[in-house]
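---------- Forwarded message ----------

FYI, see the DUF3332 domain-containing protein record below. Original note from H. follows.
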Amino acid sequence: MNKAMAKMGVMTALAVSLSGCVGSNAVTGYVMGANLKAVDNRYARGGLNMLMAPVYGLAISVDYIVFNSLEFWTGRNPLNGQSHIFDKKMDTLIDINDQVDKSLTTAPIAPLTNYREIERGEMQKIDDNTVEMEITYTNGETATLTGIRDGESVSYYLNGEWVAQTSMTELAAHATKRA
């Protein structure tokens, strides 16, 4: 019985991992970014690329087995928020979406992250202890981020729901670092 369960587990893992071979390869992209930022010379980058071959092999394996699979099943890559390449809209030779059940046209599992790019943010001071930012995302969704100071701490709320807290000391250090 245990042998049969182990075999079924391996088969399931194999099926899930093979479903995600195609994707945005986010981990490999991060490794490539590190390679490019290491040195400014194209020949040195090429040499570094050769030395990093084992790292690239590991990165693409992690992409194929883990992150591209998650991207396939959820519709978004949890590392970079990109939608899966199979969900891109384009001219196709054969159109079948209007002939199949609607559930077969999208990813079956909700994305693990709520990655959205901000298009615009407008901040306004409400009172001496409260600021509010109206956010518009590139997909058209909107949200309100509110920061409320209470003594030495600031609590942040997204659409009225608490999301984080920081101290005034941390905010001052962050502002100094960015200046």
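H. also flagged this: The radius of gyration is 23 Å.
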